[in-house]
Write a structure and sequence with these properties.
The complex is a heterodimer.
Chain A: H1 12-17, H2 21-27, H3 32-62, H4 72-83, E1 84-88, E2 94-99, H5 101-136, H6 145-164, H7 183-186, H8 191-219, H9 232-263, H10 288-322, H11 329-342, H12 358-386, H13 395-412, H14 415-418, H15 420-426, H16 430-460, H17 466-492, H18 504-514, H19 524-557
Antiparallel strand pairs in A: 1-2
Helix pairs in contact in A: 3-5, 3-6, 3-19, 5-8, 5-9, 5-10, 5-16, 6-8, 8-9, 9-10, 9-11, 10-12, 10-13, 10-16, 11-12, 13-16, 13-17, 16-17, 17-19
Chain B: H1 17-46, H2 57-82, H3 86-115, E1 117-122, E2 127-135, E3 139-147, H4 150-154, E4 165-170, E5 174-179, H5 186-213, H6 219-222, H7 224-254
Antiparallel strand pairs in B: 1-2, 1-5, 2-3, 3-4
Chain lengths: ~625, ~260
């Protein structure tokens, strides 16, 4: 199975598709690998776009009402006078354009939406899942290839609708990624309507994907690939798919109802007596809490949709680079299943501030504490896997090594938010922002980077540059921490999220009311951190340049992988030709052993592929 | 490249691919309608007064029977194929499709009835409730009755058997009026949302079944087993749509 193709990229792949033509091969493909790459590239573009939105917001927070450098006039030409305010010098000449609070709000809402629904989930679940899962289980493709294509197309349509909403009068949705009603319903633009329609397409996309993944993992495992021989990544994707399958529909229901509120003037989420001029006469009788319940019924499982695939990638790379079986495979599997189940009964810990009863709060903080146990088990298993290994510190492994403590910080800082009493203080502050960004940014995104560096040679036949990979890693690691650590301090000091000026007015009002400095307001030190975070964020952006160049340059000019299995891995995706042709495997595979048989005593090599038969 | 188990059964799971897929899809559908039913409960629990008797129970019963009939013919259509009788399949699914169209016809009549049904609040405090006969510029004519109070409009436990009278109202007398569309109150909102979403499912199922009945049926000659599976899978979806209505009918019409 170690067949080497000297010119991997131009090899089997294009030859096989010669008859299909460009459009069927690269745009309307039903091949899971092409779809995986389509998902990956699109999601990376959205990731970058979401990051740019964030940079502009950080500028506004650090320098409120100052003209946005570089992109100010571009911004003005897109969103118009209402959303981008002209900044004039003393003589009255326009020197630039600044971000209005409305524009800031829409950037905030769209940053969250794009990062969660258009970048991380498609990248972690759909891109890696599509490319890797069928290969790992020894399947020729996904169960329903055309459904797979429809899933990607639906995702693209949803993404386009979200992007188009920036250009409509009044701009994109402004009510946060959580879109709480009645706020979301009463803002008088159509941004929210676009958001809802876009979300319905994205939900459809993930529904089609989830059905496909689960069916594929159940039905298309190769002979001998029993459940406990599945690589942990496949298990993680399996649980994730169930979360998407069962948690998203309630949000879809909520979305349909909010859409009805918006276009058919119903009052699902609008209470009796609500008087907002933009709403006109409403019948009332609705419940704002209902939206929050339905939203967080998705929202919390979504957190695990973001993190489980990352944990799967991390497990694969750790086993491969420590040259050791992953520690506690079964506890990993059962932990993932437990997380999947428990994640459906913790959602109201996002809603402690809604005035829920003590008993309900107690229930939800108990389940929240219980769900931290399997997460800690997974992280502990990963740490223990390092013990006694002779670790290869290549770029993917570096990202994974950083994932462990970063995710640890993200997870542990979540505990005070899970308790009712401490959450009352921290709720909606920058502490929360720092917490979940530690989980997702240096957590999940680092794991995704690791996955890109790790599976790149399988996709292209060439390695990504190791030196620039390390530059990318170290700069990203440092900048991530410089961005998010200060936010813990800001949040604990009481800095609220979603203030369009970073709290400048709030502090000024407080200081003038009390006549003293820093009573209730934010101290100068904390306010100065805004500028610090801005520059750290800019540096993080610059740190991605080596990655972007490396990513494209290596397609043609990277070091050839040398073989189909450059990392000497055991799992099945490395036992195919490179890149795998349509139909994946050169001949039918049979699986004889578990996924992590590294350094088996008495074996000639330090890895035993899953499809290598036992010697008679 | 062939995807395995598209029509043959995988031995350890006992299923072919599409059957796994449709059951997973239905699980997700259960969550979708489950969330809407939960919303119904929450809205109703929080309401001051919940409407009763607004819908036409005989029509709802008729529609229930229509859908149950279609479920039976769907099973029979699939069973006919299993027994190799293509002609019977054609007959049974023709009935299914007719049932779907009948259901949608009755449903749209009910919708229409709600859209022409108005509650008119007069400036002197009286309420007129009934169907719009004439929507003129200066005056309107409602075929209905004077309600005693708001409660008398919302709760129709005591049915009104007196014949509706044409009531002429000057535009200048009207304080406010609106028809029984989704915007009327949370009851009509959830009624239109639930039944609308259900109707979309009926349309979707009917389109698929019609496709299999007309153009897709050519597969019977080339791959009868796979065709039978397709009919089974579309049938499973149809049963689900039927089942949703079995819940919708009592929840919206009777309770």
């Amino acid at each position: 199975m170690q067949a080497t193709h000297a010119v991997p990229h131009a090899g089997i792949h294009e030859e096989h598709h010669e008859d299909a033509g460009f459009w069927r091969t690269y745009i309307f493909s039903t091949d899971h690998k092409v779809i995986g790459i389509q998902y990956g590239v699109t999601a990376l573009c959205f990731l970058f776009f979401g990051f740019l939105l964030m940079l502009m917001m950080r500028w506004q927070i650090a320098h409120p009402q100052h003209a946005v450098p570089l992109v100010g006039s571009l911004l003005h030409s897109i969103v118009g006078d209402q959303m981008a305010a002209a900044v004039k010098d003393a003589a009255g000449n326009i020197v630039g354009y600044s971000i209005t609070p409305e524009l800031y709000n829409s950037f905030g809402a769209m940053h969250g939406t794009i990062m969660v629904f258009l970048a991380i989930v498609p990248l972690a679940f759909a891109a890696f899942g599509n490319y890797v899962v069928p290969l790992m289980i020894g399947a020729p493709d996904m169960c329903f290839p055309r459904v797979n294509m429809a899933s990607y197309q639906s995702y693209v349509v949803g993404g386009i609708i979200m992007l188009v909403s920036f250009f409509i009068p009044g701009g994109a949705a402004q009510a946060g990624w959580t879109s709480y009603s009645p706020l979301a319903t009463s803002i008088a633009t159509h941004g929210q309507t676009f958001w809802l329609i876009g979300m319905i397409f994205l939900i459809t996309s993930s529904l089609l994907g989830a059905v496909n993944f689960i069916a594929t993992i159940i039905q298309l495992r190769a002979p001998g690939m029993t459940w406990m021989r599945l690589p942990f990544f496949v298990w993680a994707q399996f649980v994730t798919a169930f979360l998407l399958l069962l948690a998203f529909p309630p949000l879809e229901a909520a979305g349909v109802m909010q859409l009805m509120d918006k276009v058919a003037h119903t009052s699902f989420f609008l209470p009796t007596g609500l008087a907002v001029s933009t709403l006109g006469n409403i019948s009332g009788g609705g419940s704002p809490l209902l939206w929050q319940h339905l939203f967080w019924f998705l929202g919390h499982p979504e957190v695990y949709v973001l993190i489980l695939p990352a944990m799967g990638i991390v497990a694969e790379i750790i086993a491969n680079n420590t040259r050791k079986p992953i520690w506690g495979y079964k506890s990993l599997v059962y932990s993932a299943l437990t997380i999947g189940f428990l994640s459906f009964i913790v959602w109201a810990h996002h809603m402690y501030m809604t005035g829920m009863g003590v008993r309900v709060a107690t229930f939800f903080q108990t389940t929240t504490m219980i769900i931290s146990i399997p997460s800690v088990i997974i992280l502990t298993c990963m740490f223990l896997s390092l013990w006694g290994g002779s670790i290869r510190f290549n770029t993917p492994m570096l990202f994974v090594m950083a994932f462990l403590p970063m995710f640890g910080i993200g997870g542990l800082t979540g505990l005070p938010l899970g308790f009712n009493f401490s959450d009352l203080h921290l709720h909606d502050t920058y502490y929360v922002i720092a917490h979940f960004h530690y989980v997702v940014a240096p957590g999940t995104i680092f794991a995704l980077f690791a996955g890109i560096y790790y599976w790149y040679p399988k996709m292209t036949g060439r390695m990504m540059n190791e030196f620039w990979g390390r530059v990318h890693f170290w700069l990203s690691l440092i900048c991530m921490n410089l961005i998010f650590q200060p936010m813990f301090a800001q949040g604990m000091a009481g800095m609220i999220r979603r203030m369009a000026d970073g709290g400048a007015n709030y502090t000024a009002a407080h200081n003038s009311a009390t006549g003293m400095e820093v009573v209730g307001g934010l101290s100068d030190t904390l306010m100065r951190l805004h500028v610090f975070i801005l520059w750290a964020a800019i540096c993080l952006g610059l740190a991605q340049i080596p990655f972007i160049i490396n990513f494209f340059w290596s397609i043609k000019h990277g070091k050839p992988a040398g073989s189909d299995n450059p990392w000497h891995a055991t799992t099945l995706e490395w036992q195919t030709p490179t890149p795998p042709p349509h139909g994946n495997f050169a001949k039918p595979v049979t699986v004889y052993r578990g996924p992590y048989e590294y350094s088996v005593p008495g074996h000639a090599t330090d890895f035993t592929p899953q499809n290598e038969p036992d010697k008679a | 490249m062939e995807i395995p188990y598209t029509s043959e059964i995988r031995r350890d799971t006992g299923l072919y691919n599409a059957k796994v897929g449709i059951w997973l899809f239905l699980a997700s559908e259960v969550m979708l309608f489950g969330a809407l039913f939960s919303s119904y409960i929450l809205l109703r629990v929080g309401a001051v007064e919940w409407p009763y008797g607004w819908l036409n129970v005989p029509l709802g019963t008729a529609n229930t029977l229509v859908l149950i009939t279609s479920s039976i013919t769907t099973v029979m259509a699939w069973a006919s194929l299993k027994m190799g009788n293509f002609g019977r399949f054609k007959i049974y699914h023709a009935i299914t499709i007719c049932c779907a169209i009948t259901f949608l016809g009755i449903k749209s009549y009910e919708y229409h009835d709600k859209f022409i049904h108005y509650q008119v609040n007069l400036k002197d405090g009286r309420i007129v409730d009934g169907h719009m006969e004439e929507n003129g510029k200066d005056e309107i004519v409602i075929l209905g009755r004077y309600a005693k109070d708001l409660h008398d409009v919302i709760d129709l436990h005591e049915r009104h058997f007196e014949k509706p009278q044409p009531i002429k109202i000057e535009r200048s007398e009207i304080a406010s009026m609106d028809n029984y569309g989704p915007w009327h109150n949370t009851y009509t909102a959830i009624y239109f949302t639930l039944t609308g979403l259900h109707a979309l499912h009926v349309i979707g199922g009917a389109v698929v079944i019609t496709y299999l009945w007309l153009f897709g049926a050519s597969m019977w000659k080339t791959d009868p087993e796979r065709f039978t599976n397709r009919v089974e899978v579309s049938g499973l979806f149809w049963h689900f749509v039927d089942l949703v209505w079995i819940f919708l009918f009592p929840v919206l019409y009777l309770l």
